[in-house]
């Protein structure tokens, strides 16, 4: 059996372009004893993948050049010689950026699609939602009645964080780029939302929208948002540092010069990688199920059709092309 897949051809120094990727076709053969053949249905693209295109190890190994990439994927077993899986089973894996693959079952997880759509296991019911949950629950320890600013509120993690924070009883102000995304943030529960592209002083706009400073900040953007957050946080405020997408393609961007607020306001800043916090998975699944049953959490995906458009979907993350989770339908 042949499978199309995406290869990285060169490590980009600044913002990646379509020229950094190529489509390849490979013969994956047929599954042998103890193996399964899986056809991917949905593939994930995520900002962290930009770091894997640097050619150096960060908290995960870089992508190899001229080889199939990997990332989150959900698919169906189409042929099985493994007693743990049967034809038709839905599974998630890290075998993304390809149409199909053969596995001995290691790293495959069967998923229940009775009440949750398979694609949502790559978004709000998967690592994306878990990331938002860890940031709010463990890093910030958000309490009912507190206020929080969520940056990139219309993105995958940001939109989950808005909904989870509201379900936890907090007041939420979100920032996003463009009026349509501002309206989306409001539609999923944000008490206020600011179009960062339409204001001169982001810190003042957030403070005005919130009616004063905020107790916590969920960091997805970095750069100018980080600078503004240090201004608008109240004394003893907390930051969950999840991502800094504004700097991913611009390593020479200016670093904020107001870091003295960290001491002056007794701020607590916690960077985190979701894989270090899988002990929270049972609590996450329990709370998410409850919130979804109560109608407090609703998934939203931006779906790009065709594996050939995988690079464009990835590049779209950096121009704000997605609302909610960005996925590719194979």
Structure description:
The structure is a single chain. With 330 residues, this protein is an alpha/beta fold. It folds into 2 domains: 2-121 and 299-329, Alpha-Beta Complex (Quinone Oxidoreductase, Chain A, domain 1), CATH 3.90.180; 127-276 and 286-290, NAD(P)-binding Rossmann-like Domain (Rossmann fold). The chain is built from 9 helices and 15 strands. α1 (127-140) packs across α2 (156-167) and α4 crosses α5 (223-232). The relative contact order is 0.15. The model has no long low-confidence stretch (mean pLDDT 95).
Percent helix: 10-25%
Shape: globular
The CATH class name of the largest domain reads Alpha Beta
User: Radius of gyration over alpha carbons?
Assistant: 20 Å
Return the domain count.
2
CATH homologous superfamily title of the largest domain: NAD(P)-binding Rossmann-like Domain
- Uncertain stretches: none
**Helix and strand run:** EEEEEEEHEHEHEHEHEHHEHEHE
Report the sheet with the most strands, covering strand number, pairing sense and barrel closure. 7 strands, mixed
Terminal Cα span? 16 Å
Structural class: alpha/beta
Put simply, the count of helices is 9
The CATH topology assignment of the largest domain is Rossmann fold
As a percent range, the share of strand residues is 25-35%
**CATH architecture type of the largest domain:** 3-Layer(aba) Sandwich
Give the averaged pLDDT, no decimals. Answer: 95
Q: How many strands? A: 15
